């Protein structure tokens, strides 16, 4: 199978924790491993992290490790009988009384929710399956009318659409998890419950440059500030779960497209997540709709597509990854894939770096698809610029920094490789050619397009374009 451009993100959990399982996931095509800090303890995450790094070293391959912070979880309390049935039109109260609830009321120990309520506002419970209309409220209670009823059990989630809640994106638990993840040396931190740019700025103060920040877009308020949030972040995840609860579900496909396009224009990696092959939690094959869902993300130019419960707790985790790999590979063979990437024309800012990468893409077409593009970058910026163009050939991302190589494993089309510090272009060209041969990205007689920035020691410069022939 030819190298695929779109990367596969797999969540590690009880179904895939052991060394043999993780090795099988790597063989099946995983590029990025997600540690979900909503589940498991630090010892479990440490063990999984160590296994991934050990296997990566054995395989001489780079994998990104992403630590996903839980974020604030707004939940109701518990019921006397564990579950009640709410009927349309009935009254239902939520308050700060921790007494077990019944069909008329339940505890809601979140004063920040009561602080933003307005008459006739909609509250959603249990992933939007229960819909309530606010009738009246105070600082520690709300009386509602049930608009959409159904069964409701203990500790179900609460969503408050269309408002910014006075709550931090990082809880005390998150801050402990964040400190632990950074000490481990993860490549990316995934930030949940982002509502506004200030949430990203606060996370940056804690994280610095120790890891890249991926913002989960799951709140409607984040969409209002999308451009600014993307600018502040290092990457984005389209978290379609909560997004589909708090926004009209029919709007999610267009929102996904908008978010992916915004990230593409900014040159920031973007992951499409949630329920991509959901049926494969219990079935050996996906539905046709799920296959089309993955295909849509690939056609849109997403850097990564993510598996959650499918690999964390599913019955067919390896098959799910293999299926996702097959879908990506098939789309890449489609005659419409190239035109789809071409149609996503990017604005050209008047900089040397943009001129170089724009010329690089034109050169790929003029040479009738060279074997690969090779970038040499200390910071990874040159590699990101090359990937942004979606030139439809593999990108060999050369860097002297192991951390940068690990991060670049997430980026569309990039095959990271750590090399020694190179001083000038005469050193880059032979290294690029030999590495492309070693990784089977090129063979004798092929052409390799090389981009880099001089002086090499400075970050953020891209000012050289060179063509080398493989001897």
Using the coordinates shown, work out and report the CATH topology of the largest domain: TIM Barrel
Can you identify the CATH superfamily of the largest domain?
Answer: Phosphoenolpyruvate-binding domains
| CATH architecture label of the largest domain | Alpha-Beta Barrel
Termini separation (Å)? 25 Å
The number of distinct helices, counting runs of at least 4 residues, comes to 17
What does this structure look like?
With 471 residues, this protein is of the alpha/beta class. The protein has 3 domains: 7-72 and 169-340, Phosphoenolpyruvate-binding domains (TIM Barrel, Alpha-Beta Barrel), CATH 3.20.20.60; 83-159, M1 Pyruvate Kinase, Domain 3, CATH 2.40.33.10; 352-469, Pyruvate Kinase, Chain: A, domain 1 (3-Layer(aba) Sandwich). 37% of the residues lie in helices and 22% in strands. The chain has 17 helices and 21 strands. Strands 1-2-3-12-13-14-15-16 form an 8-stranded parallel barrel, surrounded by 9 helices. Strands 6-5-9-8-7-11 form a 6-stranded mixed sheet, with helices on one face. Helix 16 (402-408) links the parallel strand 18 and strand 19 (414-418). The mean pLDDT is 94.
């Amino acid at each position: 199978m030819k190298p695929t451009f779109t990367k596969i993100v797999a969540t590690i959990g009880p179904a895939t924790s052991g060394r043999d399982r993780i090795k099988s996931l790597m063989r099946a095509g995983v590029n990025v491993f997600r540690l979900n800090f909503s589940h498991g303890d630090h010892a479990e995450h440490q063990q999984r992290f160590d296994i991934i790094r050990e296997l990566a070293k054995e395989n001489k391959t780079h994998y990104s490790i992403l630590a996903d912070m839980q974020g604030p979880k707004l939940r109701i309390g518990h019921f006397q009988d564990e579950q009640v049935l709410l009927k349309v039109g009935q009254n239902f109260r939520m308050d700060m009384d921790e007494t077990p609830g019944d069909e008329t009321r339940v505890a809601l120990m979140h004063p920040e929710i009561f602080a933003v309520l307005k008459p006739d506002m909609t509250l959603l419970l249990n992933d939007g399956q229960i819909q309530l209309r606010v009738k009246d409220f105070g600082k520690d209670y709300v009386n509602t009318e049930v608009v959409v009823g159904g069964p409701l059990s203990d500790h179900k989630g609460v969503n408050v659409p269309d408002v910014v809640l006075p709550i931090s994106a990082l809880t005390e638990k998150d801050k402990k998890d964040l400190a632990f993840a950074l000490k481990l040396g993860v490549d990316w931190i995934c930030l949940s419950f982002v509502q506004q740019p200030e949430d990203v700025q606060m996370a940056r103060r804690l994280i610095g440059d120790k890891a890249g920040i991926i913002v989960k877009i799951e709140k409607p308020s984040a969409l209002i500030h999308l451009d600014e949030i993307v600018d502040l972040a290092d990457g984005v995840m389209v978290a379609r779960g909560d997004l589909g609860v708090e926004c009209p579900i029919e709007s999610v496909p267009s929102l996904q497209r908008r978010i992916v396009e915004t990230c593409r224009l900014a040159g920031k990696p973007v992951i499409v997540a949630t329920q991509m092959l959901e049926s494969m939690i219990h079935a050996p094959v996906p539905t046709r709709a799920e296959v089309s869902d993955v295909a849509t993300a690939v056609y849109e130019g997403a850097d990564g597509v993510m598996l959650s419960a499918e690999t964390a707790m599913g019955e067919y985790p390896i098959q799910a990854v293999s299926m996702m790999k097959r879908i990506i590979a098939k789309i890449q063979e489609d005659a419409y894939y190239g035109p789809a990437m071409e149609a996503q024309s990017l604005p050209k800012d008047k900089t040397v770096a943009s001129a170089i990468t724009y010329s690089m893409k034109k050169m790929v077409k003029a040479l009738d698809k060279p074997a690969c593009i090779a970038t040499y970058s200390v910071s990874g910026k040159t590699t990101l610029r090359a990937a942004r163009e979606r030139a439809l050939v593999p990108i060999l991302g050369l860097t002297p920094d192991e951390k940068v190589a690990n991060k670049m494993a997430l980026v569309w089309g990039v095959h990271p490789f750590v090399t020694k510090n190179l001083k000038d272009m005469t050193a880059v060209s032979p290294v690029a050619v030999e590495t492309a041969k070693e990784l089977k990205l090129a063979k004798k007689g092929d052409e390799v397009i090389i981009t880099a920035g001089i002086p090499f020691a400075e970050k953020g410069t891209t000012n050289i374009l060179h063509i080398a022939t493989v001897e």
